[in-house]
Amino acid sequence: MKSHRNVSSSQEALAERNLFTALALLRNADECRAFFRDLCTPAEIQAMADRWAVVDWLMRGVPYREINRLTGVSVTTISRVARCLAAGNGGYSLILRRAKGPRRADPGRRVEAARHG
Are residues 32 and 50 in the same domain? Predict the structure, then answer.
């Protein structure tokens, strides 16, 4: 997390916790889209979308260079996502399990890999 000069580490942790609590209140993809478009720059959203786009490819064992060719996502970013899948906090795996499990809302929805062109 970015360090602020006049903010203690406990204040930074509280701000992060408040952000995650706000995210947990979002009910669907449209609400998430609206919130993230207000919260993040287009480049920040694209960086997160790039990371998510390569997860499925990595889970299928596709080589990094092939994922790069298919998605346009840099090999550095692909490597970072692979490290998080292997030894991160479990967030990618959690969402993958939920995305493949029974749908509670919007049963026609599917997770898609982005292709940069």
Answer: no
Q: Are 16 and 1 spatial neighbours (Cβ–Cβ below 8 Å)?
A: yes
Cα pseudo-dihedral 59, 83, 22, 33, rounded to 10: -50
Q: Which domain holds residue 31?
A: 7-39
How many domains does the structure of the chain reveal?
2
Q: What is the pLDDT of residues 69-87, one digit of tens each?
A: 999 999 999 999 999 999 9
- Identify the helix (H) or strand (E) that includes residue 85: helix 75-87
CA distance 22 to 32: 10
Query: Within a domain: residue 117?
Result: no
pTM: 0.78
How distant, in Å, are the alpha carbons of 32, 89, 110 from that of 100? 19, 19, 9
